[in-house]
Design brief:
RNaseH-like_sf, single chain
Length: about 190
């Protein structure tokens, strides 16, 4: 995500403004660290889109969640908290291995192709039956997580200047910025 942001800024009106990049970068890192909880990492790991060829090709730095050490550590913590019984935990880990490594029932063409085309919730409904525990987790948490993100996306944009004074100072300046009288029809 940070790489996408860097590319977007380099193409946008603030392309030469490294201060703008720094402020936005710091906000993203701070929010990631704040939201980087075991449950968030489990939900991230169960999102089929993050394993799709399309998503992985968007940036040279993209990794599927099971190959990201930080996400993997937090995902394992979450599974350990949910499943204190070692045999249940092993079963869930085996299901996750099949899903993330695209083996067993996840290796068919439709399952692989649909990861990049379907919503993660629909993907799990269609392709997750062979891993019932993981499917249940995915349907429980992805549905909630995605609904929150859709609503949050709009609110994030609206509230950026309120929540992030540093970003506001970069975006809303008196030097030809938003709200400048020369931009208004009087």
């Amino acid at each position: 995500m940070i790489e996408k942001m860097r590319v977007a800024i380099s193409k946008g009106p603030h392309s030469g403004d490294s201060k703008f990049y720094e402020v936005v970068h710091n906000i993203l890192v701070e929010r990631w660290n704040k939201n980087n909880t075991p449950l968030h990492c489990l939900t991230h790991s169960l999102n089929s889109r993050y394993y799709s060829h399309e998503w992985l090709q968007e940036s040279p730095n993209c990794l599927p969640p099971h190959r990201d050490i930080e996400v993997s550590r937090e995902r394992k913590k979450c599974i350990e908290r949910y499943y204190s019984n070692s045999s249940e935990r092993r079963s869930v880990n085996e299901e996750f291995a099949s899903f993330s490594a695209v083996i067993d029932d996840f290796s068919d063409n439709d399952s692989m192709r649909d990861r990049g085309l379907m919503s993660p919730t629909k993907w799990w409904v269609i392709h997750g039956a062979s891993t019932p525990t993981l499917q249940s987790l995915a349907l429980s948490y992805l549905g909630t997580h995605l609904l929150l993100l859709v609503g949050a996306a709009i609110l994030e944009i609206v509230n950026l200047s309120i929540d992030e004074p540093e970003l506001e100072s970069v975006l809303f300046t008196d030097e030809g910025g938003v709200g400048d009288e020369t931009d208004m029809d009087v």
